[in-house]
Amino acid sequence: MFKRSVAFQECDDFEVAERVVPFAHEYKFADLLFWYPGQGKAAYRIDDRVPVNMSGDGVNDFVGFRAIPTPAIQARRLTEDGFEMAKNAVGQCLAAKGMTLADAASNYGMMNADLPVPVLLALPIPGKPVVRYQQHRIQSSGRCLAGPDHALPTACPWDPCVVHGTQFFQSGIRVPLSRATDFIRDVHSKTGI
């Protein structure tokens, strides 16, 4: 039996190629959470086992997996479509940058629920570890896992019942760890970074 401690470290991506393999070996559940070559940023998920007597009651409550007002979902989609139709790359990049800043400010959804306030009011503290014994509460994410389906006027962002709802394009890939350094260097060379 063990608890997990999760923290995030965001940094410039100039050393990702050299750091990714040692990082993967350093922590039990290590993860390169994101790498945005265009923004020159990367975030590492520092996720490791800790003793069961370590205090903490963390929960993964990522804002992207919470029911939100449907007009907010639709407004975001209309904004994205507007940038796309206008071929406004600057607007698209600024919107993407805004999302990454919001994710980082919310500690990517990880928060300590053992504070003397309800989980809804528990504020994330970026960079501070979140500890949890029950693995499903720290690995799974968001209130949409247990929330009502089609609870309009709120909905989960991916709910197909929302007209003009969110579109998701996940461009994540998997690369064998033995080839990660070469892959990252190759991407850097092709993007001129």
From TrEMBL:
It comes from Eleusine coracana subsp. coracana. It comes from the Eukaryota. This is Uncharacterized protein.
